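Fold this sequence, please.
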Amino acid sequence: MDDIAWFERWDDDPDVVAATTDRPDATVAFEDTEWADEFAQQDEYSRYYIAELAGRPIGAMQIIDPHMENTHYWESIEPNLRAVDIWIGDPADRNKGYGETMMRLACRLCFADPAVTAIVIDPLNSNTAAHRFYRRLGFVPTHRQIFCGTDDCLVHRLTRASWARMFPDDAWPCGDTTNGGILAEPHYKTTEPR
């Protein structure tokens, strides 16, 4: 199965849907997203990654520069930040620590750029399980914000200093954006347009 097919399959998972919208009638996550177009539009400001376990895709991440990316999803936001979206596709792969591993690697990727001061995330305000997950990783809630006119989110932020204190083994050397042996599987690949 190619990368696009995995994203389309995960879009139908009820838990993934519930994490992306508060609409009770929604049946698809990211309902207006055409994954082939998303992958083709990747650039230096927006990139997707696939987490794999023993060669099998288990989840995905998107890392963006919220100040520079072309959709302006984050509206007016200061420079030198990164925003991360993460999801585990199959229910059988959830609650096994893969999400933490993915987020820790995402932090390494984000903070590899010395200009980046913090990472922001935007789980739905109703997604209290996500809030607990991100807080365990050092993210701090900062404010509620409505995205796309309907998505009521609780924005969280992780500063570089907080990350370095919480995960000193991940933090240095900051320029090492590979797994570097510090984080166990899953490993990651960047999605490329097909």
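The CA atoms of residues 58 and 90 lie 7 Å apart. Confidence is low (pLDDT under 50) at residues 174-188.
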